Amino acid sequence: ADAGAFLRAVRSLRGIAGQGDAATGAWRADRDAGYGAAAGHGEGAGSHTMIVAGNSGYPTDSGAPARGYGGYDGYDGDGGYETREPFLQRWLFSRRLAFLAAAVAVLIAIGFGGWWLTSGRYAPLPSVDGMSEAAAAQALRAAGFAVQQGTEVIDNNVPKGDVISTSPSGRAVHGATVILTVSAGPRMIQIPSVTGLSVNGAMARLRQAGLTVSNTTTPVGVNGAPKGSVAGTTPPAGTSWPANRAVSVDVVAGIPLPGLVGQNIGDVQAWAASNNIQLNQVSVHSDQPQGVIVRQSPAQGAPVGPGVTVTVYVSIGPPEVTIPNVRGESFQQAQQQLEQLGFQVQGQQFGFGQTVFGTNPSGQAQAGSTIVVYYGGL
Asked: Could you report the per-residue pLDDT of 320-370, keeping only the tens digit for each?
């Protein structure tokens, strides 16, 4: 009939009717009469308005309303009807949905915050270990980081000026400052003197000083020293040497071989005989005069002892060059051709002509030698 009656009827059907809120004229109390009276089709019809619970709230053949989408769940068996809100409606119009949404939002916020704190705000650092300081700084700045040089550290394995490590390493916050630890090079140690010690004693003293010692000795030649004695070290004592580079012990293996290059073979033969050294002579062409030593093996300073063979290369002069036949040519043409072959040319003219009629020598001659060219005629 009006909005007020409609409100009272709805409240009554939902089971919350208050005083004066009975569904008067909207629904007969006699539930066995069906829906006809409320609709004005039977006795007691006093209203032109019918309240329908959902779209299937009409009584069934058994007298109980069918279960529908409205407020009725079914006939309660005691003369009344049980009212219950639909599941979706109870959730949509209750505080539980708000609590659920708040809980989901909190979980999302916690997850995002954890990701941001542990991973999201970090960026990977480029690997710069072993690079030069300048190259490492350039790579880090290109990746979006600031760079600061830390204290140099002595390191026997990393060359001086190269990066040993970074702080932080692996990853860092975007734009963070990365501190470079740079190598100051290996520890430098002054080599002690070991001359006169045994080989084992010399090696032990070098190791005690913190040096790396080679397992093999270096044979050296020393005049007047016993063969097998320690003559020093390579590098020599007093040298400031990196701790990670090997030092070898020098052991006397004979006398030092003098420089033989440039000496005459006769003089060298006399020296070799006095020191019981064998000479292996090899003849070679060279621009040096005949009989002069132009090369030796081993090199000067190498240790040699009695019975050792030394090879010397002895010059037999320049190689022989074939003298071309220049007869019939002009003296000027012959001179140019012979000089191109490395000869010196001396001309002897007979008469007023320029025609060549002979040379001395002919056939072959050593490069650089003088060729006499005879020319003339009428």
From this structure: 888 999 998 999 999 999 999 889 999 998 888 899 899 999 888 887 889
Asked if 314 contacts 282 with a C-beta cutoff of 8 angstroms, the reply is yes
Query: Mean pLDDT, the chain, as a whole number?
Result: 80
Measured in whole angstroms, how far is the alpha carbon of residue 340 from the centre of its chain? Answer: 58
Query: Would you call the peptide bond into 235 cis, given omega within 30 degrees of 0 as the criterion?
Result: yes
Tell me the mean pLDDT in the region 33-62.
44
State the pLDDT confidence band at 71, using cuts at 50, 70 and 90: very low
Q: Name the region of 231 (left: φ>0; alpha: ψ -120 to 50; beta: rest).
A: alpha
Q: Which of 297, 322, 327, 318 is nearest to 309 (CA)?
A: 297
What tokens appear for 349 in the block?
A: 């003219």
- 125, 177 Cβ separation under 8 angstroms: no
Alpha helices for the chain (secondary structure H): 3-13, 87-92, 95-115, 133-142, 199-208, 265-274, 331-340
Report yes or no: 374 and 348 within 8 Å, Cβ to Cβ: yes
How many Cβ atoms sit within 10 Å of the Cβ of residue 209? 16
DSSP, res 120: I
179-222 pLDDT tens trace: 898 998 889 999 999 998 999 999 999 999 999 999 999 999 88
Buried b / exposed e over 32-58, threshold 16 CB at 10 Å, is ebbbebbeeeeeeeebeebbebeeebe
* C-alpha 317 chain-centroid distance: 58
Q: Is 337 helix (H, G, I), strand (E, B) or coil?
A: helix
Confidence (pLDDT) at 313: 95
> Which tens digit of pLDDT belongs to each residue from 150-159?
888 888 888 8
Rounded to whole angstroms, the Cα distance separating 265 from 340 reads: 32
DSSP code of 257? P
The tokens for 67 are: 């279960």
